[in-house]
Structures are given as structure tokens and as C-alpha cells.
Amino acid sequence: MKFPRLVGVFVFLSISLLRAQQQDVAPPNVDSIIKEIEALELKQKQGKISERNALLGAIQSAAASGPAAANFYTQAVEEVNFKGKKDKVEAFIGWKKSHSDLLRTKEMQTALLLHLKYLLLALQRKELEKPETQLPAVMAYLNELIACDDLFADQKPPNDETRNLLAQPLNQSVFAQWLRLGEWLPDDKTWEGRPGNISGILEKNVRSVMRDTKDPQLIQTWDLEMKVEAARITTGRSDHQADQFNAVNRPRLQFKQAQDMIIVGQPNRALAQMITLVRTSPSHPDFATWVAKIRELVKPASPQTSPSPAPDTAP
Predict the structure, then answer these.
(1) Structural domain spans, the chain
(2) Which of 194, 211, 243, 279 has most Cβ atoms within 10 angstroms of its Cβ?
(3) In a 10 Å sphere around its CB, with 0-12 CB exposed, 13-18 middle and 19+ buried, how is residue 188 labelled?
């Protein structure tokens, strides 16, 4: 017979609790909340900085020597390609045995070092307020990359794994996956992702910055690109490629170079180079575009029209 009373007590408590939930609490201390949020933001920022510095330190250590880079690569492959597999230990041991000779080669270690050095540049670029301060380091990397062209061209037999270290975008590399570097890498619109793409590195990492600062050395970057492409064709000893380069690619690069001359304050030199190109390459596929640009440059400024006199309304 006590159950109805207990039910009544329960209903009373439920109603009281519901009413309490419907009532607002006392207003918070706004100053205290703001201070707490600022402290949490600072702590989070400091944690991110520490995390980034730790990643940079680990990559810098790996980039110190060929063997260190090979060991770092081995760790990355183990974590990314074998973690979670049922036969992880046996499979990884098999991979190490099959790769032991390759990881000791000069070509593979050089490709690993270049990849890691470029990865460091990318991680450093993300935080730079003035990208132009990184230009000397980027150009030093490019010169090192160019100097290794013959080494990779002569690798026998050619190895896809070595090639992919320079051909594959950084955000797809085994290092980026292992260390979860996605948020630390710069946008691919402002930074070339492939460590071996000389043309892309010159355009995105170097020229885009030089154009903003109107750096006169911008013009020399085109000479460097043409020199590299010509050397690669010579190494390949392909007459067809040489003809294609001389008839199409070189003039195209020279016209782009002329456009950059305008940016650095050399419009007359730019126009002279453009005119030479249309004279010597009338069958070039870009001929119409070149002519349109020349017309745009030589077109006289439209004279300002004088306002018409007001009509005479006198009687």
C-alpha cells in the first residue's frame, strides 16, 4: 500500500527537477572565461610549435647522411606499409632483405636525402611571413638536384622506388603518412609538391616570390630552366626531342621570360625579344597569342576625349 505514496514522491521529484532544468544558472564571470580561453589557446599553440619542432628535428637528423636517411625510410615503411598486418614481422623482414642492396646504393641514398631536404624546406615555408627569405635555400636545393641528374639517369637498372622519391608529391610520401604531416605542408598552389620537378619549383617556389618583389634575378631563372632542359635532351641523345625543344619549348620559355622582363621594369627589352620570336618562329603554335600580346604592348594609349561644349541656350 506504500507504492502510491512512492509514486507520488517520484512524480514530485521529477517535476521539481524538470523545473530546475528549465531555469537558467547564474551569469558567468566573463573576464575569468576570457582569461581561461586565452590560456588554453596559448597552451594549444605552444603544443603545436613543440610538435612541429620535434618533427623538424627528426627530419634534420635523418637528412644528415645517406645511411641515416635510409634508416629513417626503413622505419617509415615499417609503420606505414606493415603495421596492422597479420604477418607483419615476417613480411617486413622479407622487405628488408629484398631492399638491403638498394638502400645502400648512392642513387637511393641521394634521392632520400634530396626528398628529406625538400620536405624540410616545405615545412619551413608554411610558417614564413616573407617567402623571399627562403629563396637562397631553395636555389641551393635546386642546384644540388640539377647536379644529380646524371646520377639518376645512369642508374642501372632504373628503379621506380628511387624515382618516386622525387616524382611523387610530398603529401603522398611514406614520410608524410608516417609523421602525419598534412597540416604542416604548404598549399600546392603556392608550393611545388614534387621534389624533383625543377620547372615547377622554379615557377611556384621561386618566380612567384620574385615577381612579388620585382627581383631582377627573375630573368635568370628562365635561362637556368632552358639550360637544364637542353642538357637532359643532350643526355638522352634524341634528335626528335632536340628538334621539339628548339622549335617549340625553347621559344615558349623565351616568351614567358620576356613577359617577366616587363615585371622587373624592362619593357623595351621584353618587346624586342617578343618581336624576334615572332620573326624567327612564325609556325609556332603560340604565334597568335604572341602577336596579340605584342599588339597590346605597342597599342597607343587612348587619348582622353574632351568634354563636349555645353549647348548655347541663350535666346
Answers:
(1) 47-138+156-186
(2) 194
(3) middle
